[in-house]
């Protein structure tokens, strides 16, 4: 019997949103999340300029908020960067680090991702560490090698106690924004591999929440979230629609009940 871990569903808005539409979306999510059981946690990672708005509209409710990246530096002459400590001042709980879009478009290497995870933890944020392979890497049979190396680069920088405080998201690059999700079995296989890698670190590392991301929609979420090693999702496009995002949260509830 698989171990029951709380589910976690986090929206990644990417570079979307404007004040007026955010208000409608955040209020809808906040209201809808009130009906969810305690063992389903919900978060949204918004663009930094909207952190204050998220704080105002979500404070005291069931939905946590966070950022999509943080600087590898604590503070200093790093034009355009946002420090983890700044996000914390706006009540943020989460920081996504190592998203494939940052790795691909901002030359973010495995070492930098590890440093960002350290920075997030030091500031009191939960890093959501993203790993994932490209289609080419999958077709070459290198998925485990790639995600294993990406994860190890982060684990190498953290103590056992720190590892227990992270979240890991498996996001196959070929499934992001393509409408082509990994099958539940494909995702489960990689999650089981990641969990074994975490378990090798010892302590509570094996119980780190493992999220799946990549074209999660209301109609495939329950199937994915019912897998023994999938503890929830990191949701892109569907997190911009209140109804869809809440339906995905509800699928997490159904998946928990079905296990
Ligand atoms: P989509 O859900 O739009 O495929 O994006 C996934 C993602 O990148 C979340 O971080």
UniProtKB/TrEMBL annotation:
It is found in: Cytoplasm. One of its GO terms (molecular function) is triose-phosphate isomerase activity. The active site is at 99 (electrophile), 171 (proton acceptor). Pfam families: TIM. Keywords: Cytoplasm, Gluconeogenesis, Glycolysis, Isomerase. InterPro entries: Aldolase_TIM, TIM_sf, TrioseP_Isoase_bac/euk, Triosephosphate_isomerase, Triosephosphate_isomerase_AS. Substrate binds at residues 12-14, 177, 215, 236-237. It is an enzyme of class 5 (isomerase). Belongs to the triosephosphate isomerase family. Homodimer. Involved in the gluconeogenesis. Catalyzes stereospecifically the conversion of dihydroxyacetone phosphate (DHAP) to D-glyceraldehyde-3-phosphate (G3P). This is Triosephosphate isomerase. It comes from Paraburkholderia bengalensis. The lineage of its organism: Bacteria, Pseudomonadati, Pseudomonadota, Betaproteobacteria, Burkholderiales.
């Amino acid at each position: 019997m698989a171990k029951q871990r709380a589910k976690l569903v986090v929206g990644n808005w990417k570079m979307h949103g404007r004040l007026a539409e955010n208000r409608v979306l955040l209020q809808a999510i906040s209201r809808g999340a009130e009906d969810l059981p305690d063992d389903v946690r919900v978060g949204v990672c918004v663009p930094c300029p909207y952190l204050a708005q998220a704080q105002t509209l979500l404070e005291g409710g069931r939905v946590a908020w966070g950022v999509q990246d943080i600087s590898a530096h604590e503070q200093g002459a790093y034009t355009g960067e946002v420090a983890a400590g700044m996000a914390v001042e706006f009540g943020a709980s989460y920081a996504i680090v190592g998203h494939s879009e940052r790795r691909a478009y901002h030359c973010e290497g495995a070492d930098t991702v590890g440093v960002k995870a350290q920075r997030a933890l030091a500031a009191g944020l939960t890093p959501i560490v993203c790993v994932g392979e490209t289609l080419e890497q999958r077709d070459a049979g290198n998925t485990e090698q790639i995600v294993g190396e990406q994860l190890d680069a982060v684990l190498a920088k953290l103590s056992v106690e720190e590892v227990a405080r992270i979240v890991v998201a498996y996001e196959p690059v070929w499934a992001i924004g393509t409408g082509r999700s990994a099958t539940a079995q494909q995702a489960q296989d990689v999650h089981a591999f990641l969990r074994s890698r975490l378990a090798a670190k010892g302590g509570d590392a094996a119980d780190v929440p493992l999220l799946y991301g990549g074209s999660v929609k209301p109609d495939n979420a329950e199937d994915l979230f019912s897998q023994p090693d999938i503890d929830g999702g990191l949701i892109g496009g569907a997190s911009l629609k209140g109804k869809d995002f809440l339906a995905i949260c509800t699928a997490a509830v159904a998946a928990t009940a079905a296990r």
